Amino acid sequence: MGVNGNSEREQTVVVTGAGSGIGRASCLKLVQAGFRIVAVDFNRSTGEETIAIIRAQGGEGIFVQADVSRNEDVERYVNLAVDTYGGIDAFFNNAGVIQKFSMLTDIEEAEYDRVMSVNVKGVFLGLKHVIKVMEKQGYGSIINTASTAGIRPEHSIAAYTASKHAVIGLTKAAALEYVKRGVRVNAICPGGVDTSLTKSVSTMMMETGYIPEELSNMRMGRFAEPDEMAEMVVFLASDKSSYMTGSIIAIDGGLTL
């Protein structure tokens, strides 16, 4: 029996933000590692597309459409995972949004609320409901998606920076509280990753005519590929990371150096 305490059934992982980018890449890597997938996304078409790719590759999974900032939606995807597969071995708490570039005093209250609702409340609700399942099981691994903006500030995205600092705080708090109850909680901090989310940055700059004074310095001269993030997600979801909890892992090509 492995550290995850499960030798009788296949491993199951819940992935939020599964319809694109790091979420989709992680789903595909996790399937290769032997996990069944509960793919959660607000966008039904992209989420179902992820499941179709998984099944075409011989994997198993279900899609759940959900708004991660709504308590009833989070309860529903957690309950569906347990009812369908009998438990949750790993949870990639990944869904998030970025804000429009602007100086702090120009951020609209609605924009601040949107970013905090998805990036912080969504992570909190996921932790709250999945930890209940894992604590009852006596095991489980959770991976939250923070950001290099959670390690040090990014110019012109104060709300996003605050939200990712909060994700790191929630990660450390949950890791501390449940360390003796079999639940591990870690966070990854991507730098620039080649996803639809980062592609929207250039579009925002063109639409607003606003260019931040400081743009991210890609020390390796390129964005990361989503697969490079996914490899770490698989490691943290598996028994190979069994002595890790509360770790905040930068995967940023040296961006935060």
Return the string of H and E elements. Answer: EHEHEHEHEHEHHE
Under CATH, the homologous superfamily reads NAD(P)-binding Rossmann-like Domain
Largest sheet: 7 strands, parallel
Total E-strand runs: 7
Strand ordering within the main sheet: 3-2-1-4-5-6-7
Radius of gyration: 17 Å
Q: Count helical runs.
A: 7
Write the layout of secondary structure elements.
Elements: E1 11-16, H1 21-32, E2 35-41, H2 44-56, E3 61-65, H3 71-85, E4 90-93, H4 109-137, E5 140-145, H5 158-178, E6 183-190, H6 196-208, H7 226-237, E7 248-251
Parallel strand pairs: 1-2, 1-4, 2-3, 4-5, 5-6, 6-7
Helix pairs in contact: 1-2, 1-7, 3-4, 4-5
Explain what this protein looks like in three dimensions.
The chain has 257 residues and is α/β, with parallel strands linked by helices. A 7-stranded parallel sheet has the order 3-2-1-4-5-6-7, sandwiched between helices. It has helices at residues 21-32, 44-56, 71-85, 109-137, 158-178, 196-208, 226-237; strands spanning 11-16, 35-41, 61-65, 90-93, 140-145, 183-190, 248-251. It has a single domain, classed as Rossmann fold, CATH 3.40.50.720. The longest helix has 29 residues, at 109-137. The chain is built from 7 helices and 7 strands, in the order E-H-E-H-E-H-E-H-E-H-E-H-H-E. The chain is globular and about 55 Å long.
